[in-house]
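Translate structure to sequence.
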């Protein structure tokens, strides 16, 4: 299988926002790789499927393909390889997104151990892992530890060339943690830099798939200072970005709940109820 052609076609679906065609294409490509006993392609496509299913909140499908790929790699005696660690990270992130914290932490720690044996200190892959682990630790209430990991991640990505998106994503996550810890000045500085980097990278026209996280951060910042009009505007922009890149997934539902809370503050009960009903419909559809 020509993996470059695979990625070219896959990228085309995302660029045209044809999300309904992605799952059938991935499934068909995986079957072709299996029929041809092209294990390298099978592992690569499987990892793409884990990420895609996670992004659209199809968690059961993500878990199933993750287990399949990990078992194959163990059979091929690749369990101590960099590729195995990468698959562990993707698997952990799917479990984290589904709210299964302990399983996610187990996979992240296993990946960190492998990276520690194989990669030089400061390798860019550590930054991605630290970012993902920090989100999980935040969900588990370990905010100080999460901040420490994000600071380590930021130190790594600042040294990389053409890393504006990675820096912006890390700064956004860091800003939201600073807000939780009432470190308002550091939060504002981090968020301001993140937005500047996202907009610079997008040339004010095309935005990265993670831009929604920065917009949500701005929404939270406005909410904290009582500027509810701008808070709602930022959250609604974030909704549009999530829908554009991922569809109405779990993150979309969370943002709907945030919008509802802001509408309550604006004393717009009707709109708040609309957002809550929309969130509930999504949760019922994606429930694992």
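Result:
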């Amino acid at each position: 299988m020509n993996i470059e052609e695979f990625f070219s076609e896959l990228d085309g679906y995302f660029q045209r926002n044809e999300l309904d065609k992605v799952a059938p294409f991935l499934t068909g490509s995986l079957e072709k790789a299996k029929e041809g006993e092209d294990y390298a392609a099978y592992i690569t496509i499987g990892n793409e499927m884990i990420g895609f299913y996670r992004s659209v909140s199809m968690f059961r499908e993500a878990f199933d393909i993750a287990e399949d790929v990990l078992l194959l790699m163990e059979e091929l005696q690749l369990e101590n390889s960099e590729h195995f660690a990468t698959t562990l990270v993707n698997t952990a992130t799917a479990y984290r997104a589904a709210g299964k914290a302990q399983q996610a932490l187990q996979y992240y720690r296993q990946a960190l151990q492998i990276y520690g044996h194989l990669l030089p200190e400061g390798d860019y892959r550590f930054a991605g892992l630290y970012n993902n682990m920090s989100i999980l630790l935040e969900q588990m209430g370990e905010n100080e530890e999460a901040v420490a990991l994000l600071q380590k991640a930021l130190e790594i990505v600042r040294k990389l060339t053409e890393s504006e998106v990675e820096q912006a994503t890390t700064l956004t996550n860091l800003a939201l943690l600073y807000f939780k810890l009432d470190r308002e000045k550091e939060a504002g500085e981090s968020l301001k830099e993140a937005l500047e980097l996202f907009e610079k990278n997008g040339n004010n026209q095309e935005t990265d798939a993670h831009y929604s996280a920065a917009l949500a951060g701005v929404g939270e910042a406005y909410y904290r200072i009582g500027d509810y009009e701008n808070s709602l505007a930022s959250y609604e922009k974030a909704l549009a970005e999530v829908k554009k890149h991922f569809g109405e997934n779990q993150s979309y539902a969370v943002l709907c709940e945030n919008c509802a809370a802001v509408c309550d503050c604006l004393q717009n009960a009707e709109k708040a109820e609309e957002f809550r009903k929309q969130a509930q419909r999504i949760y019922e559809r994606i429930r694992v």
